[in-house]
Amino acid sequence: MADDGCLSEALKGLNVDEKGEEGATTTHFIDTKDGVSKMAEAILSKKAPEIAIDFEGVDLCRDGELCIAQISDGKSTWIVDITTLGDTAFESGLRDLFERTDLLKVGFDGRADADALFHLHKTKLNFFYDIQIASCKRQDSQEGRRDRFVHGLGKATTRFLLNDPKRAAEMTRTKEVGLGLFAPERGGSYDVWKQRPMNPALVAYAAADVAMLLKMKQAWLIHSSLHDNTNTSSTRLKKAVSGARAAKGRSMAMKDF
Q1: Which of 96, 115, 134, 167 could be joined to 247 by an S-S link, Cβ 3.0–4.6 Å?
Q2: For the domain 4-241, what is the CATH code?
């Protein structure tokens, strides 16, 4: 089990100012059934209208493995160890959180995530606001152009942090170290997501994205309304889950909305 001391060390570069944006959250690594239950209870007891979610794994889709789930309510960030807990994590509260229709989940391109959740862990991803859609809609609205391809998280993050070079540099450093560990083109291996204890650099990488998603949604909601975004997302997720093949490959890069 990763302790909070290791997490604090790993996340030092993500601390932000008093205005409390991306890194100003307490991060917890959870690898017990009781920990998942307490996390779910804490989220629901706050009656928070939304949580940010993200996932990491090996070939993340129905053909691969889901290794960790990241969840943030804007004040606390939890990294749930799926490699260790397996379906116990979902039976202890994750399934309820992801399937609830009164709790908005904010994420980035949930198609592969939903594919893995449904086929590997019998869990549906409901009421999902997609930052990928919002990023594309922002560009269409502000820059007057439509790309043929969807935006990746890196492009969306770069645009979001355009006026905050300090945070952008911190994010880049965190991401570069993490990518060096798991990206094959950089000499890494996705199997590192299964290694325990988790490398603190991977913990930092995993926490970095999810901690910022709620702020991105807040900023871009004007370009992609809750109603339109969640409806479009629902269609995309259903197609990914019900498809004859796993939600992966070059076709995923084509804009489908």
Answers
A1: 115
A2: 3.30.420.10
